[in-house]
Amino acid sequence: MAFNSSDTAAFKGVWVFCEQREGVIMSTSYQLLSEGRKLANDLGVELCGVVLGKDIKEDYLKALGGYGADKVYYCNHELLDVYTTDAYTKVICDLVEDKKPEIFLIGATNIGRDLGPRCAARLHTGLTADCTHLDVDVEKYKAFLKTTSTIDVDNTKFEDTKNLKMTRPAFGGHLMATIVCPDYRPQMSTVRPGVMQTAPYNEETAAKTVLERVDVKLDASDIHVDLVEIKKSAKKLVDLVGADVVVSVGRGISSDPKRGIEIAEELANVLGGVVGASRAVVDAGLIAADHQVGQTGKTVHAKIYVALGISGAIQHLAGMQDSECIIAVNKNGSAPIFDVATYGITGDLFKVGPMLTEAIAKYKASKA
Amino acid sequence: MKCIVCVKQVPDTSGVVAVKEDGTMDRAAMATITNHDDLAAVEAALRIKDATGCKVVVVSMGPPPAEGMLRELLAMGADEAVLVSAREFGGSDTYATSQILAAAVKKIGVEDDDIIFCGRQAIDGDTAQVGPQIAEKLHLPQVSYAAEIKVEGKTVTVKRLLEDGYMTIKVQTPCLITCVKELNTARYMSVGGIMECYQKPLEIYNYETLKDDPLIDVDTIGLKGSPTNVYKSFSPPVKGAGMMMEGADKATVEKLVSILNDKHII
Known about the structure:
The structure holds two protein chains of two kinds. Chain A folds into two domains: 8-222, HUPs (Rossmann fold), CATH 3.40.50; 245-367, Rossmann fold (3-Layer(aba) Sandwich), CATH 3.40.50.1220. Helices cover 33% and strands 24% of the residues of chain A. Chain A is built from eleven helices and 18 strands. Chain A has a seven-stranded parallel sheet with strand order 7-11-6-1-4-5-12, with helices on both faces. A five-stranded parallel sheet of chain A has the order 15-14-16-17-18. By secondary structure, chain B is of the alpha/beta class. Chain B has seven helices and 13 strands. Chain B has helices at 36-52, 66-76, 94-108, 130-137, 191-196, 207-210, 250-262; strands at 2-7, 9-11, 32-34, 55-61, 80-84, 115-119, 142-152, 155-162, 165-172, 175-179, 202-205, 229-234, 243-244. Chain B has a nine-stranded mixed sheet, with helices on both faces. A two-stranded antiparallel ribbon of chain B has the order 2-3. In chain B, helix 2 links the parallel strand 4 and strand 5. In chain B, helix 3 crosses helix 4. Chains A and B meet through helix 3, helix 4, strand 7, strand 9 and strand 10 of A and helix 3, helix 4, strand 7, strand 8 and strand 9 of B.
């Protein structure tokens, strides 16, 4: 029977695409499995991981169970070693058409955002990009809105459905939109890396995971591109998403960008953190793009986030406001950054920054 | 050979953002710009034109005022423009949009040595979906996140960005490439270009123009043909204001450090 994406009743289960690079599963996959587990529990269905590669170690596949996967479908094939749009789309679509999952989550990596739309277009279903929150249960969704929106939740009508409610920022973070895909399956979503929390690894569930090898129909004529080479940046990229402490600089450094970045580095050093930046600083070419925090950059959940000379454009706030402790230094006392700051200092970052570094260094020395 | 470039006019979200009472964006009240990634795509095409003399066609789906943006792109050096505009196309999500744009690109005509360009993503939605979805609808190979493009005959070599590096990919025309804004710095309109842009052809494709294409079906275009729709939209609340420290001197930072210590933050 031909595949029909609008026969919604025929689809069951939650899937997570577990992306590998160089044979190693990416950490985004664990975040998505942890989130997918909750959705699968709310629906009372299975959670499956899907891995495409050449010869992925069985340990790695089993480990996916430790983050919640009941089952792992894996495809080993020479042509799946490195990502190509054509090969991955074909294998994924064949698998979806055969097994019919109701929800399919993909990490919103540079690969996931190439694969997701191509698959959704082929399967004739909806895809929501770069989601930051997912719900199936309406009550849980309402609880989420109570803490994250200005909606009067108790006096608003919500259509009671188990459809996947996919929430994402739009218009550079000025607006949040919850998207549904009611009439087609699977309900597909790419999920922003670093946003979903990884659940603690569970050895028991890992041991119970069922591994199912899937034979793929694939040959070289299916692939219409030639991969010439893969190069990693020589410079080690900053790990903003995984950092406990981020010290970011904004437009306020523009009178002396070199010194401004230096001040941030010094403060980051004493706090054991890394340096971030607002879009303005990245766009001005003062720091590399991998430092960018915000809607078009990285989302961070730092324990301490220091904003030096950042006014707090909403697109920046979207990437850092969930940090636990936000310390803002800005000359302009009415800058929007102070609306989200835990502690604010109205002052010049070129003066306050070094003083803060010194005070923290002194404090650390006294504790040593 | 020709290059077809898909562009979008977007509200400038870096400037003043107007939100209506119902929580939706007031697009009419906001300044509009050509999407950054799309401008890079136009520039990429114009550079191929500089080198080969090929034709560059810019195509945009949007309301009639998007014509102004297309005229600007003609003034930059594009040869022809197509505005895809119809009430029936309104409310399209990325799936439906790609159906319509793919039909428009087919109408323009894709030949053996053509390249379709798109921006990677638009700043209003940040989805990065329409490019790959057009490629799928046209059954063309795609390369997304292009940060460098070299064309030699029918072979296009693309440096495709990864988070921690890049892939170099060779692909044969016809193909679709999505560009990141770091790819290049777009040229300005020239004085001569501004003079000429009103003489250059700008065609409007409406529902009538495209309706015979199998991609244009009531179930696959517009609001009704969009697999996704908005369940709720809302403004994020700002966090409760924190504590403003007094002063900005040594005593201030020492007080802050002692608070951070008391709360076990450091």
